[in-house]
Amino acid sequence: MTSEPANTVTTLLGEIADVGRDAQRGGYSRPVYSTAELDLRSWFIAAAERRGLEVLTDPNGIIWAWCGPERDDSLVTGSHLDSVPGGGAFDGPLGVAAALAAVDELRARGVQPGQDGKRSLALTVFPEEEGSRFGIACLGSRLLTGAIDADKARNLRDAEGNTFAELSARNGVDPAYLGADADSLAHIGQFIELHVEQGRGLIDMGSPIAVAGSILGHGRWKFTISGQGNHAGTTLMVDRADPMVVAAQIVLSVRKVAAAQEDARATVGRIQPTPGGTNVIASKVELWLDVRHPDDAVTAAVVEKIHGQAQIAAANEGCTVTLTEESLSPTTGFDAGLQAELRRLLPGAPVLDSGAGHDAGVLAPYLPTGMLFIRNPTGVSHSPEEAVENSDADYAAGALADVLEGLL
Ligand code: GLV
Ligand code: MN
Ligand code: MN
Ligand code: MN
């Protein structure tokens, strides 16, 4: 490693504080391969290269910054730089900035990954963790592991009609080579993702940090409701087949069905009427559903119940409705041995389960994976109000360095 003055996590996040701000929604909108996300990727590459790390982008667009000459069975840490629309400053970037700061901290301690019998260390940045552009969350890690079919990924379309293959090609990633990448996967001996906590778990526990226990099973579905597009002024109320009316009933069903099912969480956060005019009865409405529950069979039952109610609502309105599954991730427990190691290296850190999905969760079935959560004083995430105290952000880098040093 070369000598670069150490940066704190707060300083590093300050360097990107103006990238991808969303004046309309508030917070940040940094969809994968947008100007903002590309600027962040360049920022990460420059920061890693200043630290003397060897940077390369793999066939799926995952960035790797290497510290040490060996590749296989390395210790890997990282997160993502893309965001949801109007997201916070920390979901993703906290883990990336903490990884860079932890490299500085390891250097300050005289710890040399890849030397003195230690494994190499790599920092990674995964593309499209949020699925906010192409609909499927953790697309980079799903491609890496082969959890998603490469053709399915290539053909995903964003709201402007660009395919993931086109966007990849435009950004230097040859779409022909997207997909399961056994070589890169073999580089990961253990994977650690540090992440802002996205709920109020750590506030309640009174701890700045937790070790992740599991990730709640979750999936995404799309309802397509078709009706009769028509004129808002000339069409009598009795003559309407209005898919927006069906959509409204689906939103209420989602709330009612999930509220009646212990531990279920279900959300409609995105709805798209076509053509979408104030004085136009829509001809079609697309509505996206996010459902989560620890028991995957219960998730399926919740979705089926909502689907049944949607069909009744559609029939009553003279509309039709179809439901398609876009992605499904089962409940995933993190490696028990690695969890125990992390708790040994971070004395007093409680275990906290995650309601949010992460690339670490996609990797978990394939290799030993662990996560660290950092306290969020608002308990709010996927929102501009997401927060981390400066003191906790800088503590996070030290804690990550402790963990990396202990595992190397
Ligand atoms: C990603 O952040 C998710 O859990 O939806
Ligand atoms: Mn995240
Ligand atoms: Mn997120
Ligand atoms: Mn996530």
What would a concise description of this structure say?
The chain has 408 residues and is α/β, with parallel strands linked by helices. It contains 13 helices and 15 strands.
Task: Please give a structural write-up.
Helices cover 34% and strands 23% of the residues. With 408 residues, the chain is of the alpha/beta class. It folds into two domains: 9-216 and 331-407, Aminopeptidase (3-Layer(aba) Sandwich); 218-329, Alpha-Beta Plaits (2-Layer Sandwich). Helix 3 links the parallel strand 3 (74-80) and strand 4 (121-126). The longest helix is centred in the C-terminal third of the chain and has 22 residues, at 296-317. 48% of the residues are buried. The model has no long low-confidence stretch (mean pLDDT 97). The structure holds glyoxylic acid (GLV) and manganese (II) ion (3 copies). One manganese (II) ion binds next to loops. Belongs to the peptidase M20 family. Its EC number is 3.5.1.87. InterPro entries: Amidase_Cbmase, Bact_exopeptidase_dim_dom, Peptidase_M20. GO terms for molecular function: hydrolase activity, acting on carbon-nitrogen (but not peptide) bonds, in linear amidines; metal ion binding; N-carbamoyl-L-amino-acid hydrolase activity.
